[in-house]
Known about the structure:
Blueprint: H1 15-22, H2 26-29, H3 33-46, E1 53-57, H4 63-70, E2 74-79, H5 82-91, E3 97-101, E4 114-120, H6 129-137, E5 140-153, E6 159-160, H7 163-170, E7 176-181, H8 186-189, E8 196-203
Parallel strand pairs: 1-2, 1-4, 2-3, 4-5
Antiparallel strand pairs: 5-6, 5-8, 7-8
Helix pairs in contact: 1-5
Amino acid sequence: MTHHTDTNPGAGVDWDAESVTFDDEPDHGLRDPVVREAWAARMAAWLPRPASDVLDVGCGTGSLSLLASERGHRVTGIDASPRMVQLARAKLAGRDAVFLLGDAAAPPVGEERFDVLICRHVLWALPEPGRVLRHWHGLLRPGGRLVLVEGRWGTLSPVGLPAERLAALVEPLVAGLTVEPLSGDARLWGREVDDERYAVVATV
């Protein structure tokens, strides 16, 4: 992802360098079968039943893209890190999936529109999340779905987006939304967590 301001908490991270160990985190690489199954079950609930066009913004190494593809969805992934895009293309080789280098805040998809936009742990690090959400909303077809997995991490100087704030940003753009707490499901993270983790699932 690209960053434009020094006040942005995600700025200064070298995501190409991070790509080397990125999948070592249980909820990134989904290498543990229990963790992978937990995310697969959530994705099954969040994504529509018929095959649809899914845009995965800030896709990283493509772990969620792969889960969507395994359910028959057509996936377009966007990431600002060339190395992440390279790893995602390798992970989904031979599948109905395309990975593009670009800014998650302004995905380079032209006039293409999608049934679902999914984003995990990216929005919090982008400047002006409200503006980004309005742009993302415009990339969805009528009746499309936003699936935003976010959180607020850390105790001394927490970073992230509280669920209440994200819901308030999304609500004016959509017909309805639900906030799904995720902190209590240790299988998703490979360990017990006590910070705020959640998904906002909204229909436009």
